[in-house]
Specification:
Mean pLDDT: 79
CATH topology: Deoxyribonuclease I, Chain A
Distance between the termini: 38 Å
Low-confidence stretches: 1-25, 303-317, 368-373
Shape: globular
Strand order of the largest sheet: 1-2-3-9-10-11-12-14-13
CATH superfamily: Endonuclease/exonuclease/phosphatase
Strand content: 25-35%
Number of strands: 16
């Protein structure tokens, strides 16, 4: 397959130096100013939806992480002929979710009623990365996430680059924060959102979300193909991990306002007519009827596919003692009427503190179920 290249990126800034003033342009902090970065031959567009007042605070987060990663799948086929794909969204809890075993089970059909899966895209939250672009030593004022180092049920812990290499998948990864301070170590880590895909990924984009407590960077990319009836399709995928709480005296914002602020900023860059999926860990505290963030998403999308609309005994959720009915993981679709979506439930969390959400998408008006003999 193509080698996984994680070279330092070169920036192509859309603003003049006079407009930037004294702001320094760190490769891993590109989202602080709107512009582009290039990894080898791939351009990544950055959108800044954060406030200018948050610049210094965001900079302290960014100086502790490495560069984005963009990798093509090992078998890149142009004009891929396909009528359906399987889409997964999953918070893998910084290595505790066994992505390797999950992919094997998915491909064998063990998670899709015995129907083997050839083409898939996985949107991951809290994926982690180890490579030389993550700085070994960081400034004392740099901000980091709490250290999370939990192994999978098999006792292993594998970073997202290694997973992509092993399975020959395309990868788009953008870190949001460092995984603990981890100074004076040869294997520092950062963590953020990732897209793994059997499809070639195009038009990658990173979006700096409004800062509420920790740095949050959403990512987006397109996949495309042609049906067997020679009908072209394009699907934009947006992967998001919203803030779950705020700091200090602003803790009340954490129950709804913080996430609503972030998702509103994200939706502003999505054209209303775009065929798209937004998925991820929304970190919502209440069910959709009481969550302004989810109600806002329902208004924005003309079709809603979430786990809570189906069999209540199998709702993929993250449970909390004080909020037993809390749902945090969602898949939102805005697709043509002749497309069909169908959810498969997964009762195994593979070691993560979240269950995977799986949806099959058909690009025709035929249902995605296997044909009976």
């Amino acid at each position: 397959m193509n080698s996984l290249r994680c070279r330092k990126i070169q920036s192509s800034n859309m603003f003049s130096q006079s407009q930037l003033g004294e702001k320094r342009n760190y490769p891993s902090c590109q989202g602080l100013i709107e512009g582009q970065v290039r990894i080898d031959d791939q351009v990544i567009v950055w959108k800044n939806q954060a406030s200018d007042d948050d610049y210094d605070n965001l900079l302290s987060w960014c100086q502790a992480v490495g560069s984005p990663v963009f990798v093509k799948p090992s078998e890149t086929e142009k004009n891929l002929t396909i009528d359906r794909l399987t889409l997964v969204s999953w918070n893998v809890h910084v290595g505790s979710g066994d992505i390797d075993q999950f992919i094997k089970d998915l491909q064998k059909g063990q998670l899709t009623d015995g129907d083997p899966v050839e083409h898939f895209v996985i949107l991951l939250q809290e994926a982690y990365r180890q490579d030389s672009s993550v700085p070994v030593n960081i400034p004392p004022y740099a901000k980091v996430g709490n250290s999370i180092h939990i192994t999978t049920p098999r006792g292993s812990r594998v970073d997202i680059i290694t997973i992509a290499r092993k399975h020959g998948l395309g990868l788009f990864y953008v870190p949001s924060m460092r995984n603990g301070r981890q100074e004076n170590t040869n294997v520092p880590e950062d963590r953020g959102n990732a897209i793994l895909s059997t499809f070639p990924i195009s038009r990658p984009m990173a979006v700096e979300l409004p800062l509420e407590r920790q740095r949050r960077t959403a990512i987006a990319a397109n996949i495309e193909g042609v049906t067997k009836n020679n009908i072209s399709w394009i699907l934009q995928l947006i992967n998001v991990h919203l803030e779950n709480r705020t700091s200090g005296l602003m803790f009340v914002r954490g129950f709804s306002i913080a996430r609503l602020n972030q998702i509103t900023a994200l939706l502003k860059i999505l054209p209303e007519e775009k065929i798209a999926v937004i998925a991820g860990d929304f970190n919502t505290w209440f069910r959709e009827a009481r969550e302004p963030t989810i109600k806002h998403m329902e208004t924005f999308f003309n079709q809603l596919e979430i786990a809570s609309k189906f069999d209540g005994a199998k709702i993929p959720r993250k449970r909390y003692a004080l909020f037993p009915d809390r749902l945090v993981d969602y898949l939102f679709f805005r697709v043509p009427e002749n497309w069909h979506t169908e959810k498969d439930y997964v009762n195994d969390h593979y070691g993560s503190d979240h269950y995977p959400l799986i949806t099959k998408i058909s690009f025709t008006n035929n249902r995605v179920k296997k044909e009976s003999n």
